[in-house]
Design brief:
Oligomer: single chain
Helix content: 25-40%
Number of helices: 8
Distance between the termini: 27 Å
Order of helices and strands: HEHHEEHEHEHEHEH
Shape: globular
Length: 171
């Protein structure tokens, strides 16, 4: 389990234009007996790691994919680019453009197939793991008839570890 002082100190280092940190929400900060390391376990770029029972943050490695925020059970990390409100706005725009159907696509897929997708009809994210299950449930409640997730080739993607988390969200 990471040491409390180190978690509070290092979480602040990841804060940037891509991520906002609410350290008071962190399970480890709130409960010194908590063993949560979900953000570090899910970090696709290696920006958040646990080494020698200490959380280590390397802000320069953060790519803003939002994976850490998606898996955080207490919302201690908040993703930007897009933030949750923007993500839902783009999803509703996709729903309107596609007659009730929403299309989410990872950046790798859209870059590999630049002419295959109408950008106005899809929501592009760095990694599909950015789509939280609560967003999917809200979209269904808002009248979405179907949702398509388009992914690139994860095997050679630099943030391929996001696939595991995305599969857990889908389950």
């Amino acid at each position: 389990m990471p040491k409390l002082g180190s978690v509070i100190e290092v979480l602040g280092r990841i804060e940037s234009l891509d991520i906002t940190v609410h350290s008071e929400r962190c399970a480890v900060v709130r409960n010194r007996n908590a063993t949560c390391t979900k953000c570090a376990d899910a970090c696709t770029s290696g920006a958040i790691k646990i080494q020698d029972n200490e959380m280590v943050i390397t802000p320069d490695l953060c790519i803003g994919c939002g994976t850490c925020a998606t898996v955080c059970p207490t919302c201690a990390l908040e993703a930007h680019r897009p933030n949750d409100a923007e993500l839902m706005h783009y999803a509703h725009r996709s729903m309107e453009a596609n007659d009730g159907h929403v299309v989410f696509a990872c950046r790798k897929a859209t870059q590999a197939n630049k002419n295959a997708y109408d950008k106005s009809g899809l929501v592009e994210v760095a990694c599909l793991v950015r789509i939280e299950e609560t967003a999917l449930i809200c979209l269904v409640g808002d009248g979405v008839t179907s949702i398509t997730l388009v992914r690139g080739t994860c095997a050679d993607c630099p943030i391929r570890t996001g696939l595991k988390s995305a599969e857990l969200v889908l389950e």
